Amino acid sequence: MSLLLDTVPASVEVVESTLGFGSNNLYTDILIVVLIIVMLALLASALMVNRAMKSIIRITMPELVNEEAARRLANKGWLKRSWNKMMGIRPISEEKDIVIDHEYDGIRELDNPIPIWFNFLFYGTIFFGLVYLFIYQVSGLGMNQDQEYAHEMVVAEKERQAYLAASASNVDESTVEFQPEMAAEGKAIFAANCVACHGGNGEGGIGPNLTDKFWLHGGEIKDVFKTIKYGVPDKGMVPWEQTLSPAQIAQVASYIVTLRDTKPANPKEPQGEEVSYGSTEAAETTAVDNAVDKKTEQ
Ligand code: HEC
Predict the structure, then answer these.
(1) Domain boundaries, the chain
(2) Alpha carbon nearest to ligand 1 atom 40, residue
(3) How far, in Å, CA of 89 to CA of 114, rounded?
(4) What fold characterizes domain 180-289?
(5) Rounded Cα gap, residues 259 and 297, in angstroms
(6) How far apart are the C-alpha atoms of 26 and 19, rounded to whole Å?
(7) Distance (Å, rounded) from C-alpha 26 to C-alpha 223?
(8) Segment 78-111, tens digit of pLDDT
(9) CA distance linking residue 214 with residue 188, whole number of Å
C-alpha cells in the first residue's frame, strides 16, 4: 500500500479517473481495487486453511466429529420444537391426547391450543392501545389531532410570514401592489417622516396634497412608490430609497392610496393633473362611486 502511494509523486497533477466510481483520482481507485483483490485472496486462503484443518480433524479425531454432529441434531430438534410451540402445532403422535370427545359423520375435532403468535398479537394490541391512550390522551406527552393541527398551523404561519417578509423586501415600483393590511404600518412611517411637508392627514403643506385626485407624478400605487423611492430632489421631495426599505416604501405607498378622497381639513390647492384611477387595485370606493354615477346617468 505504501509502495503504491510512494509511486505517486506529490507534484503530479491529479489524474481524472475513468472508472466512474469512488473518488475522481485514478490512483485512489486503483488502490481500492487492489485492496479489494487482496482481501478476496485472503478470504479464499482462510477458507482453504479451514477446510484443511477440518479434514485433518476428521482423520485424526473422528469421535469429535460425531459429537459435533449429534449436538447439531439436538439443536435442530430444539429449534423445531420451539417453532411448533410458537405456531401452536402439536406433533401427530400427540393427536390422540387432544382430540375432543365428540364426532359428527366421522369428523372429529382437535382441541389445539391457541398459537403463541396469536396471543402475542392479541395482548400486544391491547398493550399498544393502553400505551397509545396514555401517551396521546392522558399524559399529554404526544400531540393529539387537534394539537397537531394547531402546531402545523403555527409552523405554516411562521413560514408564511418569512415568505412574505422576503417577498416584501424584493418589491419595487414595477411589482408593488396595493395591500390594505399594510396601511397601518404605512401610517406610522408617514407620521414619522412625511407629515412635516405633507400634513398630518396628507392635506399638503410644503409638499402637495396627497388626498385629492390631482397628481404631479401619477396617483397609481406604482407611481406613488416611484416618487417616494426616487423623490423629486430639485423640487424638495426627498428620495427615500436610502432611508426606507422597499417594504416600508410599499407600506407608506399603500397608506397614501387609502388617503384618496378623504377630504381633510385645510387642503392644499390641487397641483398637477387629475387622475381617474383607471386600473386601481384600491379603488373600491371610486368603483362604487362610478357605479352610482352610471346609475344616475341612465
Ligand atoms: C422636505 C419635505 C418633504 C418630505 C419630508 C416629504 N415630501 Fe413628499 N413631496 C415634497 C414635495 C415638495 C413634493 C412635490 C414635488 C414636485 O413638485 O414635483 C412631494 C411630492 C410627493 C409625492 C408626489 C405627489 C404628486 O402630486 O405626484 C408623494 C407621493 C410624496 N411626496 C410622498 C411622500 C412621502 C410618503 C413622504 C414620507 C416618506 C414624503 N413625501 C416626505 C416634499 C416632501
Answers:
(1) 2-60, 180-289
(2) 194
(3) 9
(4) Cytochrome Bc1 Complex; Chain D, domain 2 (1.10.760)
(5) 27
(6) 8
(7) 62
(8) 888 888 877 777 778 888 888 888 888 989 888 8
(9) 24
